[in-house]
Design a protein that fits this description.
CATH superfamily of one domain: Butyryl-CoA Dehydrogenase, subunit A, domain 3
Structural class: alpha+beta
Number of helices: 11
Strand content: 5-15%
CATH topology of one domain: Butyryl-CoA Dehydrogenase, subunit A, domain 3
Largest sheet: 4 strands, antiparallel
Radius of gyration: 21 Å
CATH architecture of one domain: Up-down Bundle
Order of helices and strands: HHHHHEEEEEEEHHHHHH
Length: 394
């Protein structure tokens, strides 16, 4: 495995770094101070659209490949590196950026060509900022993905969805939401189905933005599906896809296994930002000569570097089309705690000023905790790894 940067990768990271410094961190700070996401018509999003954000990787058959957006890459390894750099500047604003979001991977991996055309074509060259979304987590639980409660039943040429979803990023402003439901909980994973629920669909109701201690720059939304009638054409992959055993569940897991190395990279980025701020404070306050502090600072940097290597290994396996469940879970289990410890150390260096809530370190300390929760908690990742070790199925 070779993780050295190509000229193209280095240039893309440098561009993201400049955008992060000049635009993304200030926007994230504005949202945090306001205690709410930036509105969809905020000029920041229009500016980011002009910079190349908000696009899809999908292209019609025969079309030229898309120019890489500042935060999108052609390989999983590059995506981890970009995720780390973006989160260094502001992870919340990175999620808030327009684009198809987490709804894109299941449409690409599960959707028919017609569905990809319908739902992703608007993101090829959008005239205004638009969003897509993904909804799996439910009020009754999020980590036990196989046990979702939202029901789907066939009714002629439609499916009727009933249930509740929570902590769905950007769903309140999305053009469509990829929603996972089950035709029968007794079937377990084999009962899973994925639907694209479009904005304005009758029965898609009661959107509520959740309050969070950190990552306030993007919407974490809960909503209900009450007799929500979705056309048969919006069943991702069509009926044939679910002839495979546990096809819907596999689609969800592929999304998570592809995303978890990037989530680990984001955690590392937040931790790195906190350590850089702590190092600057140590210099300003005359603490740089304290050998114990310097040793602790370097210890946290080593842990973050190790976590990043785990994420890169999992991403490399994904690029090689090799199974990466164990490695993706290891990266996701290791990186957030390492980043949390790094931000906690930075809070110690900050001292009493951390209680005032006016310093970037304090914001990073609030932001980082979510990385241990989203896309599978650390506890669940350890369950996945333990089952792998003793040869049990996941």
């Amino acid at each position: 495995m070779d993780f050295s940067l190509s000229t193209e990768q280095a240039a893309q990271i440098a561009r993201l770094r400049a955008l992060g410094r000049d635009h993304m961190r200030p926007a994230g700070w504005r949202a945090d101070r306001a205690g709410a996401p930036l509105p969809a018509d905020d000029p920041f999003f229009t500016r980011m659209l002009a910079e190349g954000f908000g696009r899809t990787r999908w292209r019609p058959p025969g079309a030229q490949a898309a120019a890489a957006a500042p935060n999108k890459a052609g390989s999983a390894v590059t995506q981890v590196l970009l995720a780390e750099e973006g989160a260094y500047w502001d992870r919340g604003i990175g999620v808030a950026l327009p684009g198809p979001g987490l709804g894109e991977p299941p449409i690409l991996s599960m959707g028919t060509p017609e569905q990809q055309q319908r739902f992703l074509a608007p993101f090829v060259d959008p005239a205004r900022p638009i969003w897509g979304a993904f909804a799996m987590t439910e009020p009754s639980g999020g980590s036990d993905v196989a046990n979702i409660k939202t029901r789907a039943r066939r009714d002629g040429n439609h499916w009727v969805l009933d249930g509740a979803k929570s902590f769905s990023g950007n769903s309140g402003r999305a053009e469509w939401i990829v929603v996972f439901a089950t035709i029968d909980p007794a079937l377990g994973r084999a009962g899973h189905r994925a639907f694209v629920v479009e904005r304005g669909t009758p029965g898609l109701t009661d959107f509520r933005m959740e309050k969070k201690m950190g990552l306030k720059a993007y919407e974490s939304t809960s909503f209900f599906l009450t007799g929500c009638r979705v056309p048969q054409a919006n069943l991702l992959g069509g009926e044939a896809y679910y002839g495979q055993r546990a096809g819907g569940f596999k689609g969800a897991m592929n999304t998570f296994n592809a995303g978890r190395p990037a989530i680990a990279g984001m955690a590392v980025g937040i931790g790195r930002a906190a350590l850089d701020e702590a190092a600057e404070l140590m210099r300003e306050q005359g603490l740089w000569s304290d050998q114990r502090l310097r040793d602790r600072l370097e210890r946290h940097r080593r842990k973050l570097k190790g976590a990043l290597l785990l994420a890169l290994q999992a991403a490399w396996l994904a690029d090689q089309r090799q199974p990466n469940m164990l490695e993706a879970s290891a990266a996701k289990a290791v990186a957030p705690p390492a980043a949390f410890d790094a931000t906690a150390f930075a809070m110690e260096v900050l001292g009493l000023a951390g209680g005032a809530g006016e310093h970037l370190i304090e914001k990073l300390f609030r932001d980082v905790k979510a990385l241990d929760i989203v896309e599978g908690t650390g506890q669940i990742q350890r369950v996945v790894m333990a089952r792998q070790l003793v040869g049990l199925p996941n």
